[in-house]
Structures are given as structure tokens and as C-alpha cells.
Amino acid sequence: CMKYLKNEDDAQDALMQIFEKLLDDLKKHEIQQFKAWLHTVSKNHCLMQIRSGKAVYSRQIDLRIERDGLATATEDHSAIDGPATEEQFDKLEKAIAQLNEDQRRCIQLFYLNEKSYQEITAVTGYSLNEVKSYLQNGKRNIKLFFAGKA
Length: 150
Known about the structure:
By secondary structure, this protein is mostly helical.
């Protein structure tokens, strides 16, 4: 769990949850290779924890989209610990302005207006898959802009 979660408290919590789950799973399944099975169960549990944590994290990004995106804009490529500077906000606004209309609209609704995927589909008329695609491509294009490749 430490390998995946990289936080002792989170790893201990995950370990406890896994062992609680094992009590039920061992009754339901016939396990041939316990060590390999336990490793797979643990890995899957940790990956699900990471995914759920990223969903929470992505809503807290504010205007930065992702720390990596702005870190590429800095000379030393280090992560930004404090609030973004005015220059970085200006650069972010320019990056968003260069997106196509669909991507720009979804990025603004999701990050600036803090709308959910479902709310964006209702407002824009895009399908759920289109919204996800526009957000993913918009984020990628913003990263490329910060890296100087766009």
C-alpha cells in the first residue's frame, strides 16, 4: 500500500480496509495462490483510492488546471507550492483563449464555474463523452501551451 499511496496513514487505512474485505472474500472465493491474489487485491484497492482522491483533487485545482502545467512554465521546472502569480494567471488566460470553442467552454464551466459533468451536459447539450473529451483535450492543450509547444 505504501508503494502506491506514498502516505503512511493512507496506507494503514487501506490495509485495514483490505483485511476487512478479505474476511468476506475468503468465504466466497477459492484461492489457489494466496500471495499473488492478496497482492492483486491490495493493488486494485490502492489504485481505486488513488482514483477517488484524484477526483477530489481535480475539483481543488482552481485556475491552475494542474500543477504540472504551470510548473513547465517556470524556469526550474519545480512544482508551485504557493498561489499562482499574476503572470501565470495571465498566461493561463491566454492558453484558455487559444482553445477551440468547445474545449474553452467546458474548461470554463468545469474549473471556473465548478460545474459537474452532468451540469455541463445540460448547459451545453454535449454528450457526457464529449464533455470528458473536451476537458481532457483542453487540459492537454493548456499543458502544451505552457511547455511552449503550442
